[in-house]
Specification:
Blueprint lengths: L15 H9 L5 H11 L40 E6 L13 H10 L2 E6 L5 H13 L5 E3 L13 H15 L4 E3 L2 H4 L2 E2 L5 E2 L8 H10 L2 E4 L18 H6 L13 H14 L4 E4 H4 L5 H10 L3 E4 L4 H4 L3 H10 L4 E2 L18 H12 L27 H16 L7
Parallel strand pairs: 1-2, 2-3, 4-7, 7-8, 8-9, 9-10
Antiparallel strand pairs: 5-6
Helix pairs in contact: 5-7
This protein binds zinc ion.
The site of zinc ion (ZN) has 4 residues, from loops.
Length: 411
């Protein structure tokens, strides 16, 4: 069939595709046009939607990709893995959500050697974590401690917190974790007080102590760039922010996205002997050039990839160059939590690890970055990087062993 067959009979507002479909159904001609107009009262020259009654809410849209492309399932990582970014223990004496022995079974199934449990707590809580996980399963779990933010307003806090870090090391912890509490939640003088800045001087003794102890600081300050913008139709994380309105840091007295990163960078600069791991690809996976400049400036900083393969995998050429150039500075991580279903990109399980492995090891195209029916962080899919064996070894475990100063793989 050719377009020239009866051009004068084709309604001016129809696309060629619409015309072909209608012709195929034996409906070509004025009848179809007349029906459509009668139903919707549209003037003759206005576009008429083909099926206007079918407005589908975005939340219900679950398109299946029609691409016939290679799928390379990776059941186990090619090399043993250290997951530098997990949250396996629970708060304040609660029992673990999943018994540690069951977690280890999943770990074995996917060639995951060690989980670095970042939120091990402090004091009594840390002691319980270390007994339940680290000591019960040597080499499979290592835990970090966290600052005691609730005391940050007390006199003498700076020195006390510095000493506390050394106590946590004696108790068996392997590093210090900073949540985005710092910079986005912690306030001086109660809930209405001013936000404490990331580079506040009262934390200097703590950063210094970590350097002296040879301890890495795993740092999560900031969040995706879109969380600092209005939750409107232009926001690429609209659905995610709508599901979690409290993740928005737009407005009120929140600092701008770049202000937080600048404050963090001043901490990196002030403590060159302390090793920092900037989690979530330095909180700027959307801008790998910017992250690269930060890494060039601060040799004491590494990055980790947890919950950001959705960003890395939609810019595969830029990401592959980034992994090549910074192969000694990138750590494997997932941000896994063995609990809940709210953030599928983080739910601990075989599926989650297999997606990460597929992303790093294969050159598969256009696949889901999270085990979920709808991509939870934004409606896009990702492309694998097909990293070399040399880079895979470094990212999977060598860099983490060096940063932690621990031999964990094959130990
Ligand atoms: Zn995390």
């Amino acid at each position: 069939m050719s377009d020239e067959r009866a051009p004068e009979r084709r309604p001016a507002t129809w696309s060629r595709r619409g015309w072909l479909a209608a012709a195929g159904a034996g409906l070509i001609g004025s009848t179809v046009r007349g029906d459509a107009e009668a139903a919707h009262g549209g003037p003759a020259n206005q576009p008429v939607p083909r099926n206007p009654s079918a407005t589908l809410p975005l939340a219900e849209f679950q398109p299946k990709s029609m691409l016939h492309v290679t799928e390379t399932p990776i059941a186990r990582a090619r090399f043993p893995v250290i997951d530098f970014h997990t949250h396996v223990s629970r708060r304040r004496g609660q029992k673990p959500a999943v018994p540690p022995a069951d977690i280890v079974k999943t770990m074995d199934a996917v060639n995951l050697r060690t989980m670095v449990n970042l939120t091990g707590g402090s004091g009594e809580e840390l002691a319980t974590t270390i007994t339940t996980f680290d000591r019960a399963f040597p080499g499979r779990f290592v835990s970090m401690t966290e600052p005691t933010w609730t005391r940050a307003g007390e006199a003498g806090y700076a020195v006390w917190q510095g000493d506390e870090v050394a106590n946590a090391k004696a108790a068996g912890a392997v590093g210090l974790k900073i949540l985005k509490t710092l910079g986005l939640y912690l306030r001086d003088g109660g809930p209405q007080g001013t936000l404490v800045r990331v580079d506040d001087a009262r934390f200097d003794p703590m950063w210094e102590a970590c350097g002296r102890l040879g301890w890495p600081v795993a740092m999560h300050v900031g969040d995706p760039e879109a969380f600092f913008l209005p939750t409107d139709r232009f926001n690429e994380r609209y659905e995610e922010l709508s599901a979690h309105p409290d993740w928005s840091f737009y407005g009120r007295d929140f600092p701008a996205f770049k202000e937080i990163l600048n404050a963090r960078d001043r901490v990196f600069a002030r403590h060159p002997k302390t090793t920092f791991v900037a989690l979530h690809v330095g909180h700027w996976a959307e801008n790998l050039k910017g992250v690269g400049e930060m890494l060039d400036k601060f040799p004491n900083v590494h990055v980790e990839i947890g919950a950001r393969i959705g960003e890395l995998g939609r810019q595969p050429s830029t990401s592959a160059q980034f992994f090549d150039r910074y192969q000694d500075r990138i750590l494997f991580g997932t941000d896994a939590i063995p609990l809940g279903t709210e953030t599928p990109q983080q739910v601990f399980g075989e599926d989650l690890y297999r997606i990460y492995y597929r992303f790093l090891e294969t050159e598969d195209e256009y696949f889901d970055y999270a085990p979920a029916p709808v991509p939870p962080q934004g409606r896009w899919r990702i492309y694998g990087l097909g990293l070399s064996e040399q880079i895979l070894r470094k990212v999977y475990y060598e860099n983490a062993e060096r940063v932690l100063q621990l031999k964990l793989v094959g130990a």
